[in-house]
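Archive maintenance. Older records in this collection stored only the sequence; we are now back-filling the structure field for every entry so that each record is complete. The fields below show one back-filled record exactly as it appears after the update. Entries are processed alphabetically, and CBS domain containing protein is next in the queue.

ARCHIVE ENTRY
Title: CBS domain containing protein
Organism field: Acanthamoeba castellanii
Length field: 348
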Amino acid sequence: METTMYKKRKERDEEAKEEGAGTMTDPVPSKETAPSKKPRGSVREEGDDMLLLLAKTRVEELAPTQKVLSVVKEETLPEAFKLLVEHNILAAPVLGKARHFLGFVDMLDFAQFIITEFGDKSIQSMEDVQGLMRNLDKWNSAKVSDIMRSSRGKAEVVAKGYSLLHAAEILACPVADSSGHICHIVTQSMLIDFVWHHIDALGEKRHTRVDQLRLSPGTVVSVDANVRTLSALSVMIEKGVTGLPVVNEEGAVVDNISTRDLRGIKYDAKMLWRLWESVAFFKRRIVEGDQKAPTDVVYVLNSDTLETVVQKMADHHIHRVFVVDDELHKRPVRVLSQCDILQNVLRT
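Back-filled structure field:
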């Protein structure tokens, strides 16, 4: 049986199709010309303009000139890891024979491999570091296909012409051409940027307070700035998340640690021993080596709005925003992910 939400989205997709969404030459509607026609058989709600705009925009229009960076399943970990590090991306599509899409490999996959193979090692002296480096044969010989998590599954592939409304419900949405080859990837970061550019289409919904957002129940998991970076990675893997707030002795959020920070070990893993350093020291090395690395923690209060969260994610190019108790103590009480925000944009 179709749910009410599904029926409403189906109506909007059908209306968008009638208005020309299926024509490849149609322009992307701007926020000034976002459709305002009332869907047949439904009561107009706040945010309907945004949903209709997403339904009218084709997936390939979000990144028409995007070059898809990919790896093949037979590539070694250093080769694939280098691609992610050099291009500052969190995941890449994995291709098999005839370059057909098999799934994704991401930084969490690499973190899982490192924890499994090296997590029980002790680093107390230079001799320990040298011994660790001698064991890098496992890193150098492992293939991408060895570390792809089956739990992630094979992402849904859509064809050109599909609407962003459909893609918005997929973590990373591969777009295939007529030959079945991946020609675009629609990411949640792109969708957040799209929502921010057309924020007026959310209507009054954009003024929804953070503490009024519909979020799944959960508690904030944080790590102390003085714990080993390897321990922080273990927590991420255990919780199935890609980032955590870093707190000081008073419990105030002072930094963010994510799987993206694995770039600090260098693509050939010759700096793998750095993972045995504290999170604070490890992050300091990254900032010293990368002038573009963010140095300020991005946070919001419960009294801030959905619009503020979207703006901060778009402006700072980040995947999560921390909600803190107040400006004085800055204790994290919630983590808002891009997925959380997009789900609230899509809900009616």
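Update note: Residues 282 and 288 are 10 Å apart (CA to CA). The chain has two domains: 59-203, 210-346.
Entry marked complete.
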